Amino acid sequence: MEGREQDPPTDPEEPRVELIAVRADNPGPMTLDGTVSYVLRDGEQAWVVDPGPKDPEHLAELLLRSGDGARPAGVLVTHRHADHSAGAATLSRQLAARSGREVPLWAADQSAVPGSRPLPAALMGGGGVVAHVVHLPGHTADSVGLLVAGGRLLSGDTLLGGSSTVIVPEDGGSLTDYLQSLAILRAMAIDGRIGSIHPGHGPALESPLDALAAIEQAIAHRHERIEQVRRARTAGVLTLDRLLRSVYGPDLPEPLREPARWNLRATLDHLAEGH
Ligand SMILES: [Zn+2]
Asked: What is the CATH number of domain 3-272?
């Protein structure tokens, strides 16, 4: 899939930024129909968000989409997971080799993304701010989103198209953080600052109403799970395996069992914090 979309910016002060989605060929239970990489272009410069897996064909496509007269200005990953970041260092080297200038790789956690440097607060183009970085811990500790000019939110794995995300405690993921991040996004959407959501997996939510509905649905889904776990525990279901069966049912497919365990652990941690 290659989508192209160019909404007129809502604010006349904002630069025109073209957003190009390029989906990698890495479908799976956790990646849905594949990781969606994004190229941002403001006419002079190009940025790549989440280069995805280290797949030569996919990286070649990103190289092509970010070229064509534009100067590569940086590569950013929304979080540490390999399906978003494994190709990032290679792509930034390829962009640097092609342009003859250094192309930084940015990530929130340098220890988790080799070769990266700290994230800027915003991506700056010739005409102003191309995108603001929004810290959204929860899926992992180092998850961020990008609010691109025109109110387009690149949500990484914080919000997915047509599926709920997983909280990964071993990567610093936390349900308490996640609910706070969703509350921030909800406030931004109600404020009219989010016009559409472009996730790391699954289809985009193309209208402000769909974006707000997706955020509210994610919040409701988590609260429903928290209540399910609370009720099961009150009823004496205490081990993780029995909770898994009680909350997710007996027919959970094998590839989803481990992620469901992570979500349960995150929910138990959240409850243990006194929520
Ligand atoms: Zn992820």
From this structure: 3.60.15.10
Q: How close is the Cα of 24 to the center of ligand 1, in Å?
A: 15
Rounded CA-CA distance 114/105 in Å is 9
**And the tokens for 238?**
């205490």
Ligand 1 mean position, distance from CA 81 (Å): 5
Residue 193 C-alpha to ligand 1 middle, in angstroms?
24
Distance 69 CA to ligand 1 centre (A): 32
CB within 5 A of ion ligand 1: which residues?
A: 81, 157
How far, in Å, from the CA of 49 to the mean position of ligand 1? 14
Query: How far does residue 79's CA lie from ligand 1's centre (Å)?
Result: 7
Q: What is the pLDDT along the chain (275 residues), one digit of tens a residue?
A: 455 554 544 566 788 999 999 999 999 888 888 999 999 999 899 999 999 999 999 999 999 999 878 999 999 999 999 999 999 999 999 999 999 999 999 999 999 999 999 999 999 998 899 999 999 999 999 999 999 999 999 999 999 998 899 999 999 999 999 999 999 999 999 999 999 999 999 999 999 999 999 999 999 999 999 999 999 999 999 899 999 999 999 899 988 899 999 999 999 999 999 88
Q: How far is the CA of 242 from the centre of ligand 1 (A)?
A: 26
List the domain boundaries for the chain. 3-272
Distance 102 CA to ligand 1 centre (A): 27
Q: Give DSSP secondary structure letters for 243-267.
A: HHHHHH-TT--HHHHHHHHHHHHHH
pTM of the model: 0.93
In the chain, DSSP assigns E strands to 2-5, 18-23, 36-41, 45-49, 71-76, 105-107, 117-118, 122-125, 128-135, 144-148, 152-156, 196-199
